[in-house]
Amino acid sequence: MKLHYDPNSSCSRRVRLTIALLGIAVDQHRIDLGSAADRTSLRGLNPNGKVPVLEDGGLVLWESHAIMQYVCNRTSDQRLYPPDIAARADVDRWLFWITGHLEPAAGGLNIENMWNRLIDGSAPDPAVVARLEGMLHAAAQMLDRQLADRQWIAGDSLSLADLSVAATVMYREPARHPLGSYRHLLGLLDRVAALDAWPATDPRARHER
C-alpha cells in the first residue's frame, strides 16, 4: 500500500495515526500542497485534489475515514475498528458526525485564524469566525457530554473516532479553537497525545519523501 499525504493536513494525520497504531507497512509519499506540480499529480489520483489518498493494487481510495476503515479491515486482530456490527456502527456514527459537524467548524477556524494569514497575510473575518465558533461550541458540547462518564468516544477502548477527533482539532491553539471549558474533551485529547503515534505524526517531525 502507498499513502499520499501532506503532514500539515489533519485528514492525513488521522490516517497516519491509524497506520502507526496498527503497525502495518505502508509506503508514505509526502505531497506538498504548496507545489503546483504536486497538486497536478495529486489530481491524477483524486479528482478533488485533496489528501490523503491510498493506493492498494488497483484500488485508489480517497476520503480519510474510508481509508482508516479500509486499513483496519485489512488488519487482523485490531481493535481500532471493532468487528462486532453494533460496536462498529457506533464508531461509524461518530465518523459521519465528525465529517458533518466537527470538521467544518474546526477546519473553517483553521482557515480564518491561521492558514489565510500564513498564505496571504489576510485577517480573519469577525462574522465568519463568530459563526464558526458557534458551530464548534455546539460540537464540543456534544463531545464533552459523551465523554463525561467514559474515557473514549465509542466503546471502552481507543477507536477510529478518538483518532479522528484529535486530528481534527490538532490546530486548536494556533487556530484559536474555543475549547478551554470542555474538560472531558480536553482529557480525551490528552490521552491521544500520550500515544507514541501522536508525536510521530506531528507536522514538525522529520518526514521522508
Structural description of this entry:
α1 (10-22) packs parallel to α3 (64-73), α4 packs antiparallel against α5 and α4 runs parallel beside α6. 54% of the residues lie in helices and 8% in strands. Strands 2-1-3-4 form a 4-stranded mixed β-sheet, covered by helices on one side. The model has no long low-confidence stretch (mean pLDDT 96). The protein has helices at residues 10-22, 36-43, 64-73, 85-120, 126-146, 160-168, 183-193, 197-200; strands at 2-5, 27-30, 53-56, 59-62. The radius of gyration is 17 Å and the shape is globular. It has 8 helices and 4 strands; from the N terminus they run βαβαββαααααα.
The CATH C-level class name of the largest domain? Mainly Alpha
Mean pLDDT over the residues = 96
What about the largest sheet? 4 strands, mixed
Which oligomeric form is depicted? Answer: single chain
Q: How far do the termini sit from each other?
A: 15 Å
Write down the secondary-structure element order: EHEHEEHHHHHH
The figure for the number of domains is: 2
**Helix-strand category:** alpha+beta
Percent range for helical residues?
A: 40-55%
Query: What is Rg?
Result: 17 Å
The helix count comes to: 8
